[in-house]
Model the fold of this input.
Amino acid sequence: MATCPVCGASVDEAAAKQTSGFTAHGAKETDPARGTRQFHDGKWVYFDSLECRSKFLRSPESYNKPA
Ligand SMILES: [Zn+2]
Done:
């Protein structure tokens, strides 16, 4: 399980992969309700919703906490 960096909800990675594209740039979602992902800073980031992804893309640095 991945965790949404915006709201902290758990995201089913398998479902998100199934419903999104596999390219590094601009993955397209066909079923946003099942989660989505975005390639950012060399790795995939998973989100539970398009809304969270939009928030993240607006200011990724505020959600991208160092491990
Ligand atoms: Zn979220």
